[in-house]
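Appendix B. Raw example, untouched.
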Amino acid sequence: MSELLLDTHIWVWYAEGIEDRLAPASVKLLDEARRTAGLLVSAISVWELGVHVRKGKIQLSAPLRDWVDRALDAQGIRFVPLDAATAVESTQLPGEPHGDPADRFLIATARMLRASLATRDDSIIAYGKTGYVRVTPL
């Protein structure tokens, strides 16, 4: 199993233990990846989460900064900072990628790391079917 880069919503649901959002098979897959290859969380997901919390679209079980520190400190989770190469990659994705800038960064990060992007986003899943990025639909 390769490393899984978590889409922001998957990260939040998994870290919060929101069982009605993730099927038991998905949780099992994430748990296994966390113990073996590892789970990746991009800096763009931290940013995106902060934006959604500020707008009141997401409520977390702890204040944002505390929640992020705790979620990134969990065993088997690796934080992936943004870098110039990934920023460039996000602007030059082949085909017809997702239009959302955060999702473009996630796709670019997955491509650069040769990781699979774990998501439930239909647009990203469809883009993955083109072969330009590996996707693990959850």
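End of appendix B.
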